[in-house]
Q: What sequence folds into this?
């Protein structure tokens, strides 16, 4: 079974291959009356666009989005919004040699095993190029969130590259847009630049950790037991290419804590509970608390490297393969805007779901 | 929106509260003709049952499962299988004081904020007691997997308690069933016993890391892009109470690796590719490779501790709360059989989905 | 693929066989805070209960519903509501002879062909007994509708039995509860009694047409294009045992009308449009108009008759089969409360969906 | 909630408005390896195309389909297939006067009431133009069915126009493609031509009854209880613009039959049961029997007529409205290829679902 849709009330179906004529997202369930402009969506796409620094793939795609439906006179109508991005720079010839051989770490093998055939050009459907469609859909979600929850803010950043993590004491969200790594620690950003240059020259690549923080999230989002906000975020982030782990709040580190340390104690706030800490990452029992929602995830190193690796061909031959083509030495970088988009889509979906079931009614404190 | 169903072709809906008359699982989509016996399901439930060692809650539940539908003369008929477990030891009086106050780290607060009211007895729907229903459903999934993929094996184990991780060199799967911690390292199991006793006496609790390994998983399971096997496993594990992070294969550690290190190189095997390593955890592009599927997750320390913690009441009063009742000092222990059950359900669901879409046809190697 | 759930935000999963230990409905998505009492649900079940007149099956079932979850101190909590009805009068011995032969007009054959095995006792899962679970779930839906849309009324009635249709001029909704046929035309109810007695004595059965009218339905319910209110109602009614056709408003008769005749012209009303007719049955473009929603459906004659009919056995033998057991001579009668329940479930589901997507905001007139 | 997807394993999401830049279908779940060609899909679109006879709207659309994804070297890859049709003849100026007034019988009013705003040009999303996307998706479904069930045939036809029904004795499927009405009775086709010319001149329109027959459908398709084949077909047909009723087999007429008359008796056939009649329309208990699947539905008369009709404006003014633009005097005609497409999509979806759950295993006879 293929399954290219996520979300329940805000539903996004992405389509398209790396080297096909176009790719896009069919966005169903956007509330009516939301101002939607191609320019605003383009803004988010431009942040993800390849070729903007020497640290990302040199494939040059205009990544220009067209809105084909669902918007009339600048407002969403409540009907499906089709977002299309035409592929322009399709250097398919780079991929001839992977038609019948399997790049280690790639989905070449598994698509072959599952489907029996595949569009091998640039990884076809399994290419990270698919994430452009997510970012476009995320642009719609952001517009709807802006209309419904004006104070909500979503910020993605890279907090670790290879073994080098940021110094939280130096972190400043204002720095995130000022370096090619979405790094909140300007000192570390410098260090990463040198580190990554060296790796690239060594025909190698490296992994990263991304963090996405959503502030201003209303309490009450999340649909227990099998539509928990954290479970949906975990699936959303894990669905991004090359992601191998997802953490909420304290994440893996929670295993080493005691109950005393981990308790997020509460005092009375102006307008609900005031938490003294946020180990929980803003989610309890699968439902948002009103604190910052904090998600982190690990991206593995780019599998496409210029160093030969042992593999096999469909014919069963054992070969050494060098992956040519234009690749990101650290795919984590471009995962940042994608993760922000996924966060936006998940939050909007849950906002609509909650409004449907509970009517947005809330228990009070005090 | 409430949402208590998971799976697409193998669909499980759990229902019931900690201190209601009963809880259970409505299991829809089990293939017909599978031998299903209450005894076999009971076997899995007994592994999860509370009160089996001094390291788990002393609540004593028979946890006896009844099959109310969907099985005829010992075989599944293809219609919904209703599994019911009656609650017998409901000491509701322990919970009177949390009717209007919110235990830190619990879902009391968020259920109150979302729904405006809640069944507070024992945490109601948010109690880990709900996981008994998952284990029962997992028993059905295991029976179907046994019929369809006889070589498939699922093994859960605890690999870290607090800061103390197992020594992989000492690990032996045969040890897992021989200690109350599902620990494959017998030396560490001893150490944990002393460590946990001390914590319990100190009115504290601790987190853990659980690992679940599935071997014999056919290649080709997983439904890209938004039904990836790893994304579905991430959601499944994150939906378990107190889980804060999920890893596939190398997990968070993948961030620190280079592309050379992380590549799972391949040689030709007897019957498909032979991998030289398994950093990927058996999943590439969201589809199983045929290697072991390896999932790990972190469970936070039990929030219910006998040490007072600051919190507020629904009325807005600031109080110090001690959580009475009978609690696990390390909830991670009892998460092991639950995680195995979730793995079984997810794998069966994807097996059926794959058979539906591709007919199980496969590309070959050699 | 088995599929025993209907609805999106208000989701009902029924389970259970005719002669198993119990049957019921897992109701997920009921808004929180709705007063739910077993007695109120029982009220609806009693209307459907067999054995209440000589015109329905003499199987005597208490059909007593128990609420096992999701309700606390008389109010829905927003978690799944499990409704269980135990089977008490299971005369399985009547069914021994259909274990291997296929009653014409029944699902015996198709369950055999699809699943390879079946619970043959009383038709197993395909028995109309399953509809008790729908009526119970409908009781929950009615309670939620009463809280959210107090003016909404749902009335089911039989308008034709065999070739004998009611006289609309004589129809009076107050009559519906005063005869065993839910017939609004008291003269016709008398006639049907004699007609049905004769049929029963002749070891025959007969079909019927049922009409369900919902008044006070808010405008705006329905989710185009593939969640249209009329399409969902059509599926809901067609899913009832023995239903062969569904009509909305003018129904099949619309085919014979001209555009002039069929136009529901509008004048300005006090609070929106005032329609001069209701050929549309209260639905335009799949969305409710605010007029009465009118659905009609045809129920085929009971297939179980005491007259021998030609059929085959699983072994391939050609036989003449007489269906013993206790059967309704006109199953349409007991379909009335079932259809009301389905109407309630569909309307509540769409109310919640609409509130989720549009927030219930509306365009105005005037 | 908007909801523009139908199907479970074969999932079709349509998008686009009557007068937007384009419309199309995102088709997810087509099995891999199916030969898919734009020309073959175009063949089906050309049958639906407007402007091919004087009896359909004179809007001239090329209705040229482009495949943007999911097909590689002529074969489906198992990934989403995006089908796009650009709108070329958009005479929006015809629609200025319905921007603020509501055409009786149209969705103008309900879209306004539900969403608060709408793309009024040509009916926007509610236009029958959306059905072009269904026909394109149906082309993919037909290609997959041809690969999986070569003997399956789907034939749509008009069997009644206004009060004039065909004579079944004269019916010949070979005639269906030889007249502009898809009429199997050539004598009646002549009569309809004169009848419709007269209506058109009188500025009126008329309804119709369409029948779709699928032969060669394997037994066992349909997913009880809430994914019954007949219920899914009912929803699918009811979702087509202007449809007001759906019948399976005997349909509404079943109400007037007795159990003796309605029984489809069986003898032993060469390869399973041989039915002596087909009142059931090929479906028992929601599962296909192997007989012809027979669906009929009523289409109301075109609401857009040149005769003035009373209505109101958004401002609350009472007016008489004449619907200009280019309209079909009998929209039923163009519903024929649409209904065939829906039948193909539903059958393929159920074929994949059944293969997923039961593995296609079957009970035998003899």
A:
């Amino acid at each position: 079974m293929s399954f290219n849709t996520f979300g329940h009330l805000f539903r996004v179906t992405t389509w398209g291959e790396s080297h096909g004529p176009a790719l896009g997202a069919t966005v169903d369930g956007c509330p009516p009356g939301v101002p939607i402009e191609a320019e605003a969506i383009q803004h988010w796409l431009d942040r993800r666009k390849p070729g903007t620094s020497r640290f990302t793939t040199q494939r040059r795609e205009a990544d220009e989005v067209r809105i084909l439906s669902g918007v009339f006179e600048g407002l969403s109508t409540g009907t499906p919004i089709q977002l299309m991005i035409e592929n322009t720079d399709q250097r398919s010839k780079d991929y001839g040699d992977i038609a019948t051989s399997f790049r280690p770490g790639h989905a070449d093998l598994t698509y072959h095993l599952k489907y029996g055939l595949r569009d091998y050009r640039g990884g076809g459907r399994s290419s990270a190029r698919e994430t452009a469609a997510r970012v476009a859909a995320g642009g719609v979600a952001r517009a709807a969130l802006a209309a419904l929850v004006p104070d909500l803010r979503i910020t993605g950043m890279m907090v670790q590259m290879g073994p080098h993590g940021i110094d939280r004491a130096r972190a400043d969200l204002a720095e995130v847009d000022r370096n090619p790594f979405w790094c909140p620690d300007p000192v570390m950003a410098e260090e990463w630049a040198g580190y990554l240059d060296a790796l690239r020259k060594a025909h190698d690549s490296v992994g990263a950790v991304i963090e996405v923080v959503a502030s201003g999230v209303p309490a009450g989002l999340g649909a227990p037991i099998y539509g928990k906000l954290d479970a949906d975020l975990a699936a959303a982030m894990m669905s991004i290419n090359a992601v191998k782990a997802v953490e909420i709040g304290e994440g893996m580190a929670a295993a080493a804590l005691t109950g005393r340390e981990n308790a997020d104690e509460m005092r009375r706030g102006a307008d609900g509970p005031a938490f003294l800490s946020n180990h929980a990452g803003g989610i309890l029992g699968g439902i948002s608390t009103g604190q910052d929602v904090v998600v982190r995830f690990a991206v593995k190193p780019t599998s496409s490297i210029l160093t030969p690796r042992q593999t096999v061909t469909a014919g069963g031959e054992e070969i050494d393969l060098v992956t040519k083509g234009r690749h990101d030495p650290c795919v984590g970088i471009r995962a940042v805007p994608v993760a922000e988009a996924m966060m936006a889509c998940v939050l909007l979906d849950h906002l609509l779901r909650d409004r449907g079931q509970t009517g947005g009614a809330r228990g009070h404190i005090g």
Remarks:
- The radius of gyration of chain D is 21 Å.
